[in-house]
Design a protein that fits this description.
Layout lengths: L3 H9 L3 E4 L1 E2 L8 E3 L4 E8 L6 E7 L8 E2 L4 E7 L2 E6 L5 E6 L4 E4 L4 E6 L6 E7 L1 H8 L2 H6 L22 E4 L2 E6 L1 E2 L18 E7 L6 E6 L3 E2 L2 E2 L6 E6 L2 E6 L7 E5 L4 E2 L6 E6 L5 E6 L24 E2 L6 H11 L2
Parallel strand pairs: 1-4, 14-16
Antiparallel strand pairs: 2-23, 3-4, 4-5, 5-12, 6-11, 7-10, 7-12, 8-9, 8-11, 10-15, 13-14, 16-17, 17-25, 18-24, 19-26, 20-23, 20-25, 21-22, 21-24
């Protein structure tokens, strides 16, 4: 028997892009999508695990159909300007405007609609969801799209505030955390220092709309690289600024997979593969990671152990890395 998610996706009659990494999300091909009333594609990158992603385009001056689903979704605005309207069964309503770089989560089981506010330019959105998990768990797509229940801890006058500044709460060695609904721009939100991740970089974790989808924004300076680490599946890494490459490997460092990147690239490290990011450009490199697990309400309890690998953890300290890592990087920046 085919999984419920695969059957549903086949009936949706839009293509599924399957690859290891996307070179530029802005140019990924999209097609008419009757169910949502716009254009789009499913996106299956190799390390997605129990999550998926979708790219959606709203033509100039148009809006998508009302949507309502019993799975979680985090949205990144790739390009365009627009507005999202939300409401629940009890009649509570909220709305907010957005521009490129906006990042937000759709509160679980609310009704919502995305609207393009430009009469001349399309909107492009990239979302990560746990739709495959929920569909294959429940085996009932009618329940997924027609379940009538309001989650008071996700959407309501006491918890929903799309105007709250995206500032870190209690910054520490691993950066800080923003708890809210909307990051107006992932490109320029301040990032607390995260010295334990290396490269004198910054990191802001995002707990959006009380979902189980953990997210974070990280940045590191020109001509530096971060420490290698590994974690569970489903972390969709979207490059926002900078130029460089990432190395990914399973087990010992030997013939790693290389992904060259620039703004707009997307990759998903496979489950428990080590990966390491290298900034060879002249400006800081910043990325947004929309993750399946690892948040404050994450359903993957052992998503990442921050201890050094020599102590049984999931991070390789600089002094423990394979010497070929630094040699390759120095050769790259010498170019």
């Amino acid at each position: 028997m085919e999984p419920t998610y695969d059957n549903f996706r086949a009936r949706d009659e839009v293509p599924t892009v399957e690859m290891f990494a996307i070179s530029n999300i802005s140019t990924l091909e999209v097609h008419p999508w009757e169910r949502i009333g716009g254009l789009g594609s499913y996106v299956h990158l190799d390390g997605r695990g129990l999550s998926n992603s979708i790219v959606v385009e709203i033509p100039a001056g148009k809006e998508l159909k009302e949507q309502h689903h019993f799975y979680e979704e985090t949205v990144f605005i790739v390009s365009g300007t627009g507005r999202t309207e939300l409401w629940n069964e009890s009649g509570f309503q909220s709305a907010f405007n957005w521009e490129p770089g906006a990042t937000f989560a759709i509160p679980l089981n609310v009704h919502f609609k995305h609207i393009n506010r430009s009469a001349t330019e399309p909107v492009r959105m990239f979302s990560v969801t746990n739709m495959p998990l929920m569909m294959n768990l429940l085996h009932d797509t009618d329940l997924i799209f027609n379940f009538k229940y309001d989650f008071a801890d996700r959407f309501g006058p006491e918890v929903t505030d799309f105007t709250r500044p995206a500032l870190a709460n209690a910054p520490g060695d691993l950066g800080g955390t923003f708890i809210g609904n909307l990051v107006p721009s992932a490109y320029d939100v301040p990032l607390p220092s995260a010295p334990s991740r290396g490269a004198n970089g910054g990191l802001l974790s995002l707990d959006l709309s009380n979902t189980s989808l953990g997210n974070h924004i990280a940045e590191f300076p020109s001509k530096t690289y971060k420490k290698a680490h590994r974690h569970g599946a489903g972390a969709h890494v979207i490059l926002l600024t900078g130029n460089g490459y990432s190395l990914l490997w399973k087990g010992d460092y030997d013939e790693p997979t290389r992904v060259d990147w620039q703004p707009g690239a997307v990759m998903v490290p496979p489950e428990k593969w080590y990966h390491q990011h290298f900034n060879t450009g002249e400006t800081a490199a910043r990325y947004l990671a929309l993750r399946f697990g690892g948040g404050n309400h994450g359903i993957v309890p052992d998503y990442m152990d921050p201890r050094p690998s020599r102590d049984g953890g999931d991070q390789i300290e600089y002094e423990d890395e394979d010497p070929r890592v630094k040699a390759t990087f120095e050769a790259e920046i010498s170019k």
